[in-house]
Amino acid sequence: MKFIKPTVLLVITIVLVVLLNTKLGQAPPFGKFLDPFHGFWQNAEKVGKFD
Question: CA–CA separation, 48 vs 30, rounded Å?
């Protein structure tokens, strides 16, 4: 019983990684789109007091 939760969480994690890195239809892989170093987040402007 103590191995069921970690196994289920591992399977969910693997499924999410595969789905987020797979092209679905015309849309690019969503994981690459949300990548903070290469996706749209890199275009964010710094806003704040300490810029």
Answer: 28
